[in-house]
Give the backbone structure.
Amino acid sequence: MLESIILINTIFIATFSFVLLNRKWNLTFLYGKKSKTFGIVVFLIIAFTVNMVPLVSADDTDGDGVENSEDDCPDTVTQDDWTVADNGCSYPSYLDNVWLCIGGGVTVEDLTGKDNEECSVTLSYDSTYMTITTPGIANHDMEGGPGGEINAQNYAWKLPLVPSNDTACNPVVTADGCEMAPERGPVATAVNGVPFYGPEDGPGGDAVALEMEMYEETEQVIDLGVCGAHSGPGGAYHYHFDGNCMHWHGDASDDSYDVSIADMAFSPNDLTISVGDTVKWTNNDGGAHTATATSGPELFNSGNLASGATWSFTFTEVGTYDYKCNYHGSMIASITVVEPEIVWADYDFSKANSTKHSPIIGFAFDGYPIYGAYGAVDGEITKMKSNYILKSGETGSNGIDDYVYSVDNGGHLDACNGVFGVTPEFPEGIYHYHSTVPTEKGSVTATNNAFPYFVNCYRGNAEDSNFDGDSLGGGGGPPDADGDHVGDGWDMCADTGDTTYPDGAPIYPRGCTQDQFDLLSSTDQNTSKVAYSGNNPPAPPDADGDGIPDPLDDCDNTESGKLVFKDGCNHGWVSVGDETNDTDGDGFADESDAFPDNSSEWADSDNDGVGDNSDACQNTKPGIEVDNAGCSNEQKLDDDKDNINNQDDLCPNEDSSGYDSDADGCIDDSDDDGVKNNVDVCPFDANDQCPSALQNNKDNVTIDVPGCIHQSAENWNPDATEDDGSCKFEEDSPGVGALSALIICFIISILKRKQDI
């Protein structure tokens, strides 16, 4: 706004001065023949009106170019490689070149018969998160699956703009302590808005290995269509592996088109071709012509084409090309170049570019990027390989349970399927995940080093809001509204609450708790104790008949008709009518209750005499004496005296006291410059150029320096870390144009008077 006011003032002053100084102009019709004073007054009124417009709305406290009234992030700090969005919130600039289907969307074909679905992605930002709103439709032709046709969804993925590591997690060693990604359901979002699902599908094993001919699936036949994806219940389209598909384009077209130059015109006058196509001009006129581009992504010029001559040009860039004949300006024509038609049904991983680092194909819910299959290893482009292998004697048909992480297997990725390294978007390095595909195909192999395909656990802190919805997820799995692992099609009590051990209630095979069971008729009660075995909908594999599908059942020999939790285990729960004592009334029979006289304890996993509910050390070695908290002397040892027991201390011989913000027992190196905080003069600045407020800062606590933190303010304090409300901003003075006009009038009056004299 301020710029506009200055411009208006400049124009007004120039006009005003010119009119009054140039006596050749007769403008008395504006103010009358007898009163030039009236004309001057009119100009002054206009000047004051322009300049007295309130400038409050033009305030921009943080100097990001967005007025306060429209700024959702009024404290934005502008920085290199970050872009300020229209709402005043900033985000990493590389995101502009990542997301697909922005700004109008892309219409694609559903190969199951439903056309005109549109891939679209809308982004919004606040100071911490990016929100992706999308219908979950891919930017390529799609193919349904067990769930039927593909339908638009209503997704809103929420991702942190700056991912933060989970300090309890060290996936280089093991997935223990990390937040595990769901085995079924969404684990990440692709850059076209389609969700990535976990490696398992429905109640039945590995969703991918059968597709890649790695083994014979014995649990459930899972069909994946184009691009390693299919639809689940409700038509929710999702990927299970690869993901490079969204960036692959079919082989470039090499068609040839002819343009005739005759009768002083180009024919055809308007031509649409594909990238890679060649156009040949033939001069069929008696005189010379040219074909010369006047606009377009790349310019061309045939030079002089005599009668009968030809000239060809191959187009390599999308866009509109206008051209003409240099000798005859009225001869104009146009060529539109588009991407070649893509036959997605022919997609194969071999189409991916194996010579370049794969692009970003999506983001895990912790905010870290996921790249395609090819990454840099020691500077060389390599097909990335996971370190997951099949357990001895297993085939992979039971999904995750059949695999184990092996750090010595020669793979490139950690237990979460990620690695820290340099990528095209992050030349300084970042933690990131890779999609992994089988290194072999066509024969049964001893290991499948592609598993878990995307993400098995999160290195960073994942946003919980991204996990809302059906815990079983899609891909042919049964809808399960109450999440008890009994599909809606055979669940007689579809509104059951929590059935998770130990806090929830157990259920009968058809999904009813004891309270719900008591409300059923005698006929329905008998039915509810028998697991479903019909074909409409198909019954899941359930060997022990407890209602919990085998792939989800941790206890595969539960007595039929008994109450179990949704893990398929009874956990000693006493059912009504059982002739079993439960002395302490905690719901666990005395014979299975480790503490039959204590209603708050019923299990002792490490057999140390301290119940699991109050055991602070639940992995005590057998036969070791423990204290009342369940901890042995060994478990309480702290050799480096940093108040972190050896068993939890990653650096047991390093006193990290005062320099260990993540409580891992190691001295922090907050700026990753190789110098630990206890000796680093600038522990938060890798270049060792830190403000005095942060020097010698022990305990990683920023010292608050009062003052003004806004760089646009007159009293900006570069060392301040907290705004104390003292910021002073230069106020724009209204009436600049008016004041200038008055001065000019005064000068003119003096000059006029001198002339009269």
Observations:
- Residues 501 and 565 are 6 Å apart (CA to CA).
- The longest strand covers residues 256-262.
- Confidence is low (pLDDT under 50) at residues 469-477, 692-702, 731-735.
- Helices lie at 2-21, 28-31, 36-51, 514-518, 522-528, 633-636, 736-756.
